[in-house]
C-alpha cells in the first residue's frame, strides 16, 4: 500500500526528529583534529584499491570484475533502501526478512553500522549545511565528500546530535544486532566472503581478490559520497532555492536514483526520494521497494501529496522550473538503459583499458 501524506499527517510524523531546519550562517573557523584511525585505514584501503585497478586491468579474470561490481549494487541497496529510506526516514515499513537482507547488504558496503549511519543522516537533515552537519557542504567539495571522515566531529555536531531521537533504531532487533556485532559481521560479510568466493569458485588468486574487494569498497564509498558533495554543490533547485541540495543527474545515475536531492531535502519522508516513481523516471531503488511491496515484504510506502509539492514550488521553487512535473524523459526505456550503463561506468573503463593494453601486447608479440 502506498500512503499519500497531507500536511496535518506530516506534523504528526515528527516523533523521530528528522524534520529539517536550515541556517544561513556562514562557516565559522575551526581547528580540526585528525582522526588518525580513519586517516590510516582509508589510506591503506585506497592504496589497495589502486593496486586492485592495476590487477583488474592486467591479471584478474573478467568474471571476478563482474562479481565485484554486482556486489557494489547489493551494497548500494543496503545503503539506499535500508539505512537511508527505511531506517533513517521511515519512508516505508519492511518485513523482518527484508530487514535482515538489507542489513547484510548495508554491512557489505562498509559505511558504519546502520545506527551510526542513520544518526549522522538525521543530523544532516535537521541541521543541513551548518556546522552541526557532519559533512557540511559549505566547507567545500573535498570536505563534504570525504574530508569529514578524516577529522573528529565538530563541537556543534556533538551537541546537536544528542537531541536526535534514535530510540526507534535502538528498539529494532536487526539494527541492534548489527551494531552490537558490527566488527565480526564486517570481517565475515565485507571481507572474508567476498574475497574467498572468487578464490574457491573459479580459482582467482588471493591477491587479486583481496585488492579488487578493496577497490569495490572504495568505489562504493565514493559513489555514495557524491550525494553529500556533488548533489549539494552542482545542479538545479526546482523545489526550494533556499537550500543547497540540488537535482544532479550524473549522481542520480551512478547512485540508482538517489540524487533527486533538492526534492529529497524538501520532502525527506517520500519513499521514492524523488517526485517521480520508477515507471516515470529513472529510479531502480524505488522499483526494488515496489517489488518488495508486491511480495508483501514492504508496505506503508509514503508519498507526498501533489498539492503540497505545488505549494512548495510556488513559495520557494525556481520559477523558471515550475513545469517540474513535465520534466520526464521522452523515452523512459532509453533513460533507464542509459542509467544502468552509467551505473557500471567504472567496469566499462576497466574493460576498455584491459582490451587496449592486452591488444597492444598481442601486436608487439606478433611483430
Description:
It comes from Dermatophagoides farinae. Keywords: Fatty acid biosynthesis, Fatty acid metabolism, Iron, Lipid biosynthesis, Lipid metabolism, Membrane, Metal-binding, Oxidoreductase, Transmembrane, Transmembrane helix. This is Fatty acid desaturase. The chain has 367 residues and is mainly alpha-helical. The protein has one domain. Helix content is 60%, strand content 3%. It contains 17 helices and four strands. The protein has helices at residues 7-11, 36-58, 62-88, 96-109, 114-126, 141-150, 155-160, 167-170, 173-180, 182-202, 206-228, 249-254, 261-266, 284-294, 306-316, 332-343, 345-366, and strands at 2-5, 93-94, 298-299, 301-304. A two-stranded parallel ribbon has the order 1-4. Helix 2 (36-58) packs across helix 11, helix 3 runs parallel beside helix 11 and helix 10 crosses helix 11. The longest helix has 27 residues, at 62-88. The protein is globular and about 65 Å long. The chain starts with a strand and ends with a helix. Mean pLDDT is 86; it is low at 6-24.
